[in-house]
Amino acid sequence: MRNKSFFLFLSLAIITGSCNTSSGPDLKAEETMIMKADSTWAALAKDGGDAEKIIEYWSDDAVVLAPGQPIVKGKDALRKMVQESKNIPGFSITWKSSDVQFSPDGKMAYMSGENLMTMNDSTGNKISLPGRSYTIWRKQADGNWKCVVDTWNHP
Hints:
Layout: H1 2-18, H2 27-45, H3 51-55, E1 58-65, E2 72-73, H4 75-86, E3 92-102, E4 108-120, E5 126-139, E6 145-153
Parallel strand pairs: 1-6
Antiparallel strand pairs: 1-2, 3-4, 4-5, 5-6
C-alpha cells in the first residue's frame, strides 16, 4: 500500500511539474518599459522635434483624438499633424503619464496623464491649455510598446 501511495504521489508530482506554470508577463518590467517609452516620446515631442522620431511611438494604425479636431489615423496623417504643429508659433507640448493598467494577457495597456499645450494666440501672446489624457498601448511582435490610441481634453 505504501508503494502505491508513493508512486501515486510521484506521478502527480511529475504531471504537476510538467504543466505550464508560467505566471504570465512580468507586468512591473512591462510598466517600466512603457513609462520609459512614454517619457522619451514626451521629450522628443516637447518642441516639435524630428517628426519621424516622434511618430515612431505610434503604431501604424494609431488614432489620435484631439479636442475639437478631426480624427487623425495612420502614420501619414500623424506625420502631417506633427509637421503642422511645428508651424504653429510658440508651439510646445509636454505631458506626464501615470497609472499603467494592463489587459489580462499583458499585451495591451492604458494610462492616464496630464499635458500642457502652449502656443501663441493671434496677437502673439503665449497661451497654455492644460489637458487630461488617456493613451492605449499595444505590445509589438518585437517586444516594444507603441501607442494605438491617443486622446485628451482641455478641462
